[in-house]
Amino acid sequence: MSADQRPSGLLDVNAALAELGRLSYTDTSMDAMLQRIAELSKQVIPGVAEASVSLVANDKALTAAFTGRLALDLDESQYGRGYGPCLEAAVGEEVREITDAREETRWADYAEACVARGALSSVSVPVPVRAGIHGALNLYAVGPAAFDDAAKETARAFASYAAVAVHNVQLYESTRELAENLDAAMRTRAVIEQAKGVLMSQRRCDATEAFALLAGASQRSNRKLRDIAQAIVDGVSGGHGRGAGGSPPA
Question: DSSP letter string over 26-49?
C-alpha cells in the first residue's frame, strides 16, 4: 500500500520502523519497548482495533504490552483455556489467523468469546526469542478478514523488533527473574479468579458478569483490580463473606 493509499490517521510503516530503530535497548526497558511496538502496530496496520504482545516462559503466559482492554481480555481468555491462536503462534512459531470468528472451528469456545467482545478477526505473529522463551504479536480487528498479506508482513517486521527487545533484556535479566514476574502475574490472575468465584456464588451470576463487577468496583474506587479481588477473597477467608470495604462490589 503506497503512502497516498493509506487510510487517514495511520502512520507510515517506514517511519514507525525508523522510530523503533532509534530506541536504545540499553536505555529503554523491555516493557516500554514492547508497549511502543504494540502501539505502533496499531497506528500503522489498517484494521487493527487493539494490539498486544504475549510472552510465554516456563509454560506460563503473560501479556507484556497491550493497547486496550479488548486485547488484554482476549489474550487472557486464551491463557485461561490453555490454548488459542496467540499461544499457538508463540510456541509453534507460526502465524495464526482467525478470518471470521463467527465461522471459526479450531478454537470454537474462544471464537465465541471473540464474537461476544466484537472482535471478528485477528492475527498472531510469532516473536522468536530463544529457547525457553516464546512470544507473539497479536492484532485484533472488529471486522472479518481484516488483515491482508501486506498487513501480516508488516506485523512480522514489528515482531522482529519485539524479539530483539526481549533478547537484549535477557542479557541483563535471567530467565529466573522473568519467571518470577510471570509467577506474580499468575498469582494475580488466581486471586481474580477466586474473587470471581465468590461473586458468582453471592450474586448468582456468570464469570463475565462477575468480572464486570470487579472492573466496575476498580474504576469507581480508583484501586487496582487485584486489590479489589484480594479484599473480596480475604473477606471470605475471614469468615465474613464480604468484599472490599466490607461488602462485595455493587
Answer: TTS-HHHHHHHHHHHHHHHSTT-S
> To which H or E segment does residue 89 belong?
helix 85-92
Give the pairing type, strands 121-130 and 96-98: antiparallel
CATH architecture of 3-173: 2-Layer Sandwich (3.30)
How many Cβ atoms are within 10 Å of 145's Cβ, its own excluded?
A: 13
Model pTM? 0.65
Where in the chain does DSSP place strands (E)? Answer: 50-57, 60-66, 96-98, 121-130, 133-141
CA 170 to chain centre: 21
What is the sign, positive or negative, of the torsion defined by CA atoms of 82, 141, 95, 61? negative
Domain map (residue ranges) of the chain: 3-173, 178-246
C-alpha–C-alpha distance, residues 98 and 120, integer Å: 8
pLDDT, one tens digit per residue, over 176-221 is 566 677 777 778 888 889 999 999 999 899 988 988 898 888 888 8
- Domain 178-246 fold: Arc Repressor Mutant, subunit A (1.10.10)
